[in-house]
Design goal:
single chain; 199 residues; mainly alpha; 7 helices; 0% strand; globular
Length: 199
């Protein structure tokens, strides 16, 4: 096989992978909605409990919210596998990206403050930066400019919270969760039902 034929085949493989990524991203919508709603509720609850200085309640809020999120993600994944048992390379790549992001966020959210590696008032900025990277990478992979833009907005929110840390970061992150995760997730769900590829 000559170099030109190999280049054409490589480009075709990349195009198929990106097209597969566009289809797979639609299936991520329910995960985005669940995590966006759970995390925004936990962030607001943390803000309220923090003002009341109820630290033990905050721990239970987060254990419950993160636990429910992981259970919901596992259930949604198994349901999706039952409906479409053939996994694609695009699906495996995106699943790996978001599982890795979820594990990273869980470690940063629980272990970093418990061990003193991150101050409680700066953690929202760090978590927002991680989410910015995940959304931007997903957008690049799926060829979606609006998902890339969501990543950029997460980074902008992260920058604001890192430069001005404090309890207000909880409310800022809750708003970002709704605007940049739950609502895009709902858009992906609706597009998936109509069979429209993400763009």
């Amino acid at each position: 096989m000559d170099a030109q034929t190999q280049a054409r085949e490589d480009l075709a493989a990349i195009r198929r992978l990106m097209e597969g990524g566009q289809r797979v991203v639609n299936h991520a919508g329910p995960h985005f909605v669940v995590w966006g709603l759970l995390m925004s509720a936990a962030l607001v609850a943390t803000y309220v409990l923090g003002r009341a200085e109820t630290v033990r309640g905050i721990t239970w809020v987060w254990a419950g919210a993160v636990g429910l999120g992981w259970v919901a993600s596992i259930a949604l994944t198994f349901n999706g596998v039952r409906r479409a048992p053939a996994t694609s390379p695009a699906g495996r790549l995106l699943a790996g990206l978001w599982i890795g992001t979820g594990v990273t966020l869980t470690l940063l959210g629980f272990a970093a403050p418990a061990g003193g590696a991150l101050a409680w008032n700066g953690i929202t900025g760090v978590l927002a930066a991680v989410l910015g990277g995940a959304f931007f990478a997903t957008g690049l992979f799926a060829g979606s400019r609006w998902l890339q833009a969501a990543g950029g907005l997460w980074w902008a929110g992260s920058l604001y919270m890192l430069l001005d840390p404090g309890p207000h970061g909880l409310l800022v992150t809750a708003a970002l969760m709704l605007a940049l995760q739950a609502i895009p997730g709902l858009v992906l769900v609706l597009r998936g039902r109509r069979g429209v590829a993400v763009a």
